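Inverse folding, one chain.
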């Protein structure tokens, strides 16, 4: 992989297309920790991405890295999402307020208006914590998007419907990060999930999957064995799409640019099919 910071070469696109972001985990944990997420933010910008998703688990020195990444994305006028690997609710169903507060502080240091987290141990005992969650989000002026992860507790259709239904009953609305690939890890149908949860979706993780003998693996969409085009058609057309499948190669800038352009061409084709 080339290690020089690339120069910026951006292309224009119709405003109707979804913004294309890159989850920086797509570049591989070892490489991201070696070069830093600021470096990959610059590469993403040079490749034509509209934004990035910064990953908490890949920060080596958050106190210094987050402000540096913030300066990079601000100068490039990029969108930014902060992804926290911590769960919102502990195993006993109580809101993990310290984890939430850490995530909100990091999002603010980054200048990220959107925070992605998974539910964790959400259950009946958690319903009384909705107001406290909303108060913290409002105080931080941060949008929360709940992700379907790869666990039975927080990555099945029933678990997500239970959460969003309980929130709606109490008058709360939080959006969803719809990870196209994670449904396979929990044995769910992504197309059924897309149809059921489309109204909640505010952000999409684009991820292809293939089945190996012992496990599922993430792959580029073009190599996926799942009906990813049908899933994207079932989801809102105007929310950001983030690449979260492996990006690797000798010319990483070119690889990244080609994947971004492929997603943009997919967006155009879906729009054309939807047009009367």
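Residues assigned per position:
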């Amino acid at each position: 992989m080339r290690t020089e910071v690339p120069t910026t070469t951006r292309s224009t696109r119709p405003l109707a297309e979804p913004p294309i972001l890159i989850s920086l985990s797509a570049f591989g944990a070892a490489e991201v920790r070696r070069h830093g997420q600021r470096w990959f933010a610059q590469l993403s910008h040079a490749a034509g991405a509209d934004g990035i998703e910064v990953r908490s688990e890949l920060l080596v020195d958050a106190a210094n890295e987050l402000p540096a990444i913030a300066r990079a994305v601000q100068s490039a006028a990029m969108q930014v999402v902060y992804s926290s690997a911590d769960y919102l609710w502990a195993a006993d169903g109580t809101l993990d307020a310290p984890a939430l507060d850490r995530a909100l502080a990091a999002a603010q240091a980054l200048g990220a208006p959107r925070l992605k987290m998974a539910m964790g141990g959400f259950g009946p005992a958690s319903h009384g914590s909705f107001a406290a969650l909303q108060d913290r989000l409002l105080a931080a002026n941060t949008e929360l998007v709940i992700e379907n992860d790869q666990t039975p507790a927080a990555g099945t259709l029933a678990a997500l419907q239970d959460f969003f239904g309980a929130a709606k009953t109490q008058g709360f609305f939080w959006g969803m990060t719809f990870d196209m690939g994670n449904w396979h890890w929990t044995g769910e149908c992504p197309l059924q999930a897309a149809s059921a949860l489309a109204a909640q979706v505010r952000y999409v993780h684009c991820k292809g999957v293939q089945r190996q003998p012992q496990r599922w693996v993430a792959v580029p969409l073009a190599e996926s064995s799942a009906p990813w085009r049908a899933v994207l058609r079932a989801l809102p057309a105007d929310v950001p799409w983030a690449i979260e499948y492996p990006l690797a190669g000798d010319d990483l800038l070119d690889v990244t640019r080609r994947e971004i352009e492929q997603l943009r061409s997919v967006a155009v084709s879906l729009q054309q099919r939807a047009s009367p």
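Residues 20-274 form a domain with the TIM Barrel fold (CATH 3.20.20.150). The first strand starts at residue 20 and ends at 23.
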